[in-house]
Amino acid sequence: MSTSKTPQSPAAVSAAGLRKSYGDKTVLDGIDLRIPAGSVFALLGPNGAGKTTAVNILSTLITADAGELHVGGHDLATDPQAVRAAIGVTGQFSAVDGLITGEENMLLMADLHHLSRREGRRTAAELLERFDLTDAAKKPAATYSGGMKRRLDIAMTLVGSPRIIFLDEPTTGLDPRSRHTMWQVIRALVSDGVTVLLTTQYLEEADQLADRIAVLHDGVIAAEGTAEELKRLIPGGHIRLRFSDPSAYRSAARALREAVAGGTPVRPPGSAPADEALVLRIPSDGTPRELRSLLDWLDSAGIEADELTVHTPDLDDVFFALTGGTGTDQPSEEAGR
Ligand SMILES: Nc1ncnc2c1ncn2[C@@H]1O[C@H](COP(=O)(O)OP(=O)(O)OP(=O)(O)O)[C@@H](O)[C@H]1O
Ligand SMILES: [Mg+2]
């Protein structure tokens, strides 16, 4: 198993032309993915984009309508058994049984993986310790907090020491501390050479963890690359001037237009979104030099803004630019059937 993260590494997971529809609703419309062994790949998308559908297909829980799919070197169509043996899956919704204790949940997983009684106990104890659940191990899982349940969920996934792990929204609903703990857990897995495919709605999470990120939208991969590559896809940063007084805003906008027409080195404001009617956006790289020249100009033009913020593009901008800022979450005709 390679621990190199270069795209030339053997693919741990690959999909070509992956399709899935429910009734006449196309959820995945020909997706291509390639996840090098030992890397973290984040599938990002708004609610209903098809992230869980993709994970469920790649983890053999549901079947695709079409596509060449390989996981761990095995063909999903002909050898789903081998794929199942190679992977671990933490679903979007908990697999924890609340009626039994955390330890019992772990031992159940050990049984499923045919570990001997002794080995099962050892593995359970070790993972409970690693996920800070030793004190709670003998309590019914129903009494655990959301964060503890999520940790138990992932601990259960690791019982069989899978080399490829699917994590569907591993940190949704976790507080910042638990989220950081989870990130450490994921990083530790990766440093052991494990391949991780995770889905997330949190751009920061993808930014923090993923070697590569794919943005899923309208059934296709709208963009794919490193966080840096994705950020480069969208226009640069800007400075925002916010006004509370509409007349101050109007005269500032007018002065800005005149400055642009008169050749003053202030670039024209971009169009402001409707909910920020009193905000002027001035394209800028946010360097001190540009900022100083803008402040000088504001001073000389007698413009007083209530707030000035420098905005450099982040993954949120990429996400909104690529997905139009809306979810695609329409209940499907077939949902629940
Ligand atoms: N069993 C099903 N029957 C019919 N439609 C389904 C089924 N499962 C999913 N869908 C539809 O497929 C689309 C994608 O759903 P999916 O759960 O994959 O989205 P997601 O990206 O995981 O969303 P979220 O971020 O909310 O978890 C949705 O429109 C959903 O209604
Ligand atoms: Mg989902």
UniProtKB/TrEMBL annotation:
Q: Which InterPro entries match?
A: AAA+_ATPase, ABC_transporter-like_ATP-bd, ABC_transporter-like_CS, ABC_transporter_ATP-binding, DrrA, P-loop_NTPase
Q: Which EC numbers does the record give?
A: 7.6.2.2
* Coiled coil start-end: none
Q: Where in the cell is it found?
A: Cell membrane
Query: What GO cellular component entries does it have?
Result: plasma membrane
The principal location of this protein is: membrane
Q: Where is the ABC transporter domain?
A: 13-243
Question: Which Gene3D superfamilies does the entry link to?
Answer: P-loop containing nucleotide triphosphate hydrolases
* UniProt GO molecular function: ABC-type xenobiotic transporter activity; ATP binding; ATP hydrolysis activity
Q: One Pfam family of this protein, by short name?
A: ABC_tran
Look up the signal peptide feature and give its range.
none
Q: Which UniProt keywords apply?
A: Antibiotic resistance, ATP-binding, Cell membrane, Membrane, Nucleotide-binding, Translocase, Transport
Question: What enzyme class is recorded for this protein?
Answer: translocase
* Recorded topology in the membrane: Peripheral membrane protein
Q: Which GO terms describe its biological process?
A: daunorubicin transport; doxorubicin transport; response to antibiotic
Q: List the SMART domains hit by this protein, alphabetically.
A: AAA
The domain of life is Bacteria
Please give the family membership noted in the entry: Belongs to the ABC transporter superfamily. Drug exporter-1 (DrugE1) (TC 3.A.1.105) family.
Q: What is this protein called?
A: ABC-type xenobiotic transporter
